[in-house]
Structures are given as structure tokens and as C-alpha cells.
Amino acid sequence: MSKGKRVLENGDGGMAGVDDSALASAIGNGEDLAPFIRAAFEMGKPEALVHQLKSFVKKKEVEIEDLCKLHYSEFIRAVDELRYVLVDADELKAGLAEENKQLQVVGDTLLQMLDALIQSHGTKKNLMQAIDSLKSCTAVVDLCMRVNEHIMSDSYYPALKALDIMERDFMPVLPARALRLLLERQIPVCRAHIERKVNKEFNDWLVHIRSASREIGQLSIGQASSARQREEDVRGRQREAEEQSRSGSKELVYILEMDDLDEDDSQLKFDLTPVYRAYHINTCLGMQDQFREHYFKNRQLQLNSDLQISTSQSFLESHQSYFAQLAGFFIVEDHVLRSAGGLMSSARTEQLWESAISKMTVVMEDQFSRMQDASHLLLVKDYVSLLGATLRRYGYQVGPLMEVLDTMRDKYHELLIADRRHRVNDVLANDKYEQMRMRKEYEYNMNVLAFHLQTVDVMPAFPYVAPFSATVPECCRIVRSFIEDSVSFLAYGGHIDYYDLVKMYLDKFLVTVLNEALLRLVRSPALRSVEQAMQIAANMTVLETACDYFAHHAAKLCGIPTRLVQGPHGALSAQATLRNSQAVAHDTMIKLVKSKVEECMNLTLIINWTPDEEPEIANDFMTTLPNDVYIYFQSIAQTSQEILPPTAFYKVISGVLEHISTSIMETFLSEDVKRFNIYAVMGIDNDLKVLEAFADDKCQTSVQDMVPGAQPLKSFLAEARQMVNLFMATQPDLYLNPVIRERNYNALDPRDIILIGEKFKDLPDKMFGGGRGGRVVAKKRLIDALIKRLKNEA
């Protein structure tokens, strides 16, 4: 229960007073008397409380007197002691006062010094804090100056590093609030400025590299062309060395070339620093993904623009710059891929290449389809193949480009054949078909040795008359250019071994162009000259021989060893075609010769077939037949022997002799010859002897050893000779003997003997008186008897 409650419980009805024991207990315990006082005032009876307190005091005074009385002596002593102590205390107080006074005097000085020291320590602390703040601010300002210097000198990476240091190390502890706020505003501004600067440099680089890509591509393609030329030179020397070793030559020269063995891209100088810097700075700014996308989109736009062909120039004029631009583009992209540290991925580079090559193939197919000149197509193809070789070095797949070139193979050769067809036709139309005369050694080298047309290995005397006309070397040059152009197109394409293709197209050209042109010339109605036909046949023979050179030349250009194309398996099929066409030329020539012989033999109709005198024997001219026949025969034989091969010469001469023999027989059988006598037969005998002597003396030795199975040329006069022999025989009836007939008269038809024998006439009557006339009359009877027997057998 609280003290307030105890006070309230005392009294009756109104609070008579405070409990004395409670009040005494509270005073004795040192408790607070406030509750008692508050209660007294609340009840409105403070006098009662005062009365109680006075009563308590009096009570306690009585207790003190009792206690004092009980301890009086001790108290007196204590008081005395206290008085003594008081005196000492006064003395001590005086001493202390004096000491205090002195201490105060000394202490004031020390306190002043202490205050000064404390003030100095405060100043020092403030100064140290100011110095530290100044150092931080100075360092920040120094960094700001360095940032400005780096930005002014385009050293953006150090500037960004300095900004990072300010932001990371200084701004959290920077005491200068104004400077901190300034930095918070300016650091993003500086970074944005750096970003703009490097992006501007990068955009400038994009403009520059597009204009430089063409030069880069041209230089790289030029290097590929030089490398190709060196490879061809090396292969040429290797083939030459192989030929020398096969021929047994001991003078072999070995050359080790050290120049350009390690040619690389050192000459391809282009600056990628802006790209590296822009990518690095954007990486430092945490914007590498955005920059990669920015780079890819811009380069993709440039590529799409580069893939557009020029409308102001023809593709033939602009194709080199077009492909060089694309080559330069992808060479740059290869360098970026390999050195830019992840700016471009292989997948994205491949994406650019696939889009480019698909567009290039479409452009090439379209432009190739428009071209109608083989030289134009070859020019573009060569550059495309160099483009492929260039980009293949950088790992790009150029198969689709080579496939487009392969699809253009047939069209190119069709255009090439059409062009060479015009040239061949012009050469054949402008040739005079006369044997070619060469006055100088260089002409011989250029027209004969260059195509292996020589018949002997010794240089001939000049002037030299060739067996062919100007058509042959001109056509050989055309064929050689065809081979070289064909090899140029097929080389460095999709085929490694393209000799068979070259050979196929070469055969096609020789058969469909050269051979057909010669056949048209041979079959032309305008061809009326035997000499021209003979020269054409001779030309065909030489061109057939030149096929071996064509095959070897094609193999040489294709890098095929000569030994692999030697023999019948390596020969051109056109060679057999030209050989067969020669037969057509020979037949045409023989037909013209026969026509000319017929013209001459027509003169036999106006000669006297019943002369009165025996003809004189002559060795150099005809006695009965027109002498023009013999003269023409001599000229044909001499010309054909000079320019035609032995087989053709044999065929021509044998055909002429056979036709003369047939003409003689037809003359005897002709209705225009009503009668003839023995003197006419003697004249024919003399003429046949002249022809037979010419055949034996002039011709037989030329063909006997060179034409397998050749018969003596005079055997082609057999029919006329046997008929003359029969009429001049002393016993013509021996013809009826089968053995003799088979041996001496096997070429004669009994029906012809009957018809001709009926025309046999007696000599004039004035001759009958002599003995010789008697023999003739007797022969007439024998001939009549033979005819009668033959009629009976028939």
C-alpha cells in the first residue's frame, strides 16, 4: 500500500491527520515526504501535518537529550577534539589558500599555454584535413587535366581509365561537394564525347575503307596473277627438264629462284586502328554488343551497295573494279575476323560471304548470258578465276563461282568456234592456193618450224617453196590461238585435269570448222582448177600432219607430259576425219583432171584414123593422141609429186592413166570413129609407150617403196595396152586360149573386141602389092576370124 493510501485511511470521514508512525518511519528511512505533504494539502489540513512534524521534532529532541546525557563525557572530548581540529583546519585552510593562490598564479600561465596548445592542435587538425582535401582535389584536378590531354591527343582509352579512377576511387571520398557535383555532371559528358569521337573516326574509316577496298582487291588479285605466272613458269621449266632428260641431253641447268618465295600480304597495307580503337573503347564503355551490331549493319550495307553493278558502264568495262571491290571487302573482313578480338564472328563473316556469292553468281550468269564475244567472256572468266584464287587463300569457299564458270564452258567454246570459223573462212577465201615461197629463215621458222611442218631436220636453201599454200600456217595460227584460248578458259577452273576437255573442243573445232570449211571449198561448184584442188588436197594433208603438233601443244599448255599423248591413243580424232576428207579432195581433183583429159581427148575425134603411112616413133611427144594430153599429164604429175604425199600422188596419176586408157577405149568404141587401120593402132602404141615410159621413169620410184601394195603405174593403161597388143599381135587368135587370155588380155571385154574389130580396116590398095601389105591383109583376116569366133562364143 502506498504512503498516500495510508494517509487517507487515517481519520474518520475526512482525514483527521497523518499516521505518526508512518511519518516517523518515512523520516527515519530518509524517504520523500512529498506524498504526505500532498495528501495534507489535498485534504485541506496542512496545519495538522505541521503539528505532527513539530511533535516529531520535540520527540526526537528529548531522545537526543537523553542520548547526550548518556554520552556527555565522550561528547565533550569529541567537541574538544573538534575544536583542535578546527584550529588545525583553519591553519590548513590558510596554507591551502596560500598554496592555491600560488597555484593559481602558476596555473593561469599554464592554462593560457594549454589553451594556445589546444587551439594549435585544432588548427593543425583543420590544416591536415584541408591538406588532405586539397590533395584529393589536386589529384582529381590532375586526373581531369590528364583526361583533357588524352582527349586532345585522341588517347581515349587512358582517358576512360582516368575517368574510371575518378569515379571509383575519388568521388566517394571527395570532400569538396561542389567539385563532386561537377564531376558527376562532367564524367558522363566526357564519356559521351569520347564515344562520339571514336564513332566518328570509325564512320570515317568506313568511308575510307570502301574506297580503299578496290585498291586492296586489285593489289591482291595482281599478286595472285603473279603467283599464277610463276607457277606456269616453274611448270614450263619442269616440262623442259623432263623433255631434256627423256631426249638424253646432258646439259641440264638447275636454277633456284629465291625471289618472292614467301610472298604474303605485306604489300596489303590498310589501317584497322580506328576499328580496333572504336571496338576497344565501346567495350570499355560496356557497349560492345551495340558496336558489333553497328559494325555488322554498316558493312552489310556497304556490301549490298558493292554488289550492285554499274549502270553507267558495261559489265566488260566495270567487271575488274566490281570484283576487285568485293575482293578487297572480304580481305578486310578476314583481317577484322582474325585480329579484332571478337568484333566479327565466323558465322557473321560467313553470312556476308554467302549473301555476296549468291548475288555474284546471279550477276555472272546474267552477264555471261548477254555476252556474244568469246574474248569478252574469257576476259571476265580470267578475272573471276583470279578472284577465286585470291579469296581461297583467305579461307572463303569459292566453289559456286567455279561452278558458274563451268556452266559457261560450252557457251564460251561455241562463241570461240564461231569466231574462229569466220577467221578460217576469211583465210580460205583470200588464199590464192599457190605454193608458199619463203625467202628468209625467219619466214621458215614462223611458218614451218613453228608448227612442226618440216619434212627434214636440215634448214633448206632459200628461197624455199613449201608444199602448202598460205592457208596452212594461217589456219595453224588460228588453231593454236583456239587451243590457247580454250586452255585459258578451262585452266584454273573447277577441273584439275582439263586436257581431255581441251582435246574434245579441239576435235570439235577441227572437224566442224576447219574440215567442214575445206570440204565446202572442195565441193564448191566454183572450184574448177585442178591446180587449186590439188593445192587444197596438199593443204589438207599438211593440216592432218599438224594435228600431232596441235595435240602436243594442247598437252604442253595443260601441263601433260608429251609421252602421255604420243601414239595412236593420244592422237586427235579429227586427224582421221581430215584423212578421210583428203579422199574427197583427191576424188574432186581426179574428177577435174579427168574432165581436162576428156577435153584434150576430144581432139582425137578429128584426127585421121586411117592414115596411109606408118607413124614415126618419137620419145618426147605423142604421135596419134593429142600432145596436150601428154603435156598436161606431165604438169599434173610434176606438181602432184611435189606437194602431195605418195599415196595421193599414186592415186592421182593412176587415175589419170586409167582415164586415158578408158578414153582411148571409148574413142575406139565411139560412133565417130567409123574405121581405123593398123597405122592408127601403131600410133596409139607409140603414144602408150611414151606414157608407160614416163610412168616407169618418173613416177614408179616415187611410190613403189612408199605406198603399200602399189601396182606399177603403167598397169592402169592395161586395157588400152592389151587392145593395141591384140591388134598388133601376129596371132590374135591366141586370145581364144584361156591361159593366154588370162595372162595377156585379162583387162579386155570380148564384146569390146568385137565392136572395135569390126571397125578394123584394110590398108589402101596401093599397099597390097608389097609384102608388108600382104601381112596386113593376113592380119585383117585373122582379126575377122577372131571376131567370128568370139561372136560364136557369145
Automatic annotation (TrEMBL):
Gene Ontology cellular component annotations, sorted alphabetically: cytosol; exocyst; membrane
Organism domain of life: Eukaryota
Exocyst complex component EXOC6/Sec15 N-terminal domain: residues covered: 52-220
Gene3D superfamilies per UniProt: Dsl1p vesicle tethering complex, Tip20p subunit, domain D, Exocyst complex subunit Sec15 C-terminal domain, N-terminal subdomain
Pfam families for the chain: EXOC6_Sec15_N, Sec15_C
Ranges of biased composition (kind: Basic and acidic residues): 228-246
Keywords (A to Z) from UniProt: Coiled coil, Cytoplasm, Exocytosis, Transport
Localization: Cytoplasm, Cytosol
Region (Disordered): 220-246
GO BP annotations, alphabetical order: acceptance of pollen; Golgi to plasma membrane transport; intracellular protein transport; pollen germination; pollen tube growth; vesicle tethering involved in exocytosis
UniProt domain Exocyst complex subunit EXOC6/Sec15 C-terminal: residue ranges: 400-759
Broad class of where this protein is predominantly found: cytoplasm
Function statement: Component of the exocyst complex involved in the docking of exocytic vesicles with fusion sites on the plasma membrane during regulated or polarized secretion. Involved in polarized cell growth and organ morphogenesis. During cytokinesis, involved in cell plate initiation, cell plate maturation and formation of new primary cell wall.
UniProt family annotation: Belongs to the SEC15 family.
Protein's UniProt name: Exocyst complex component
Taxonomic source organism: Ceratodon purpureus
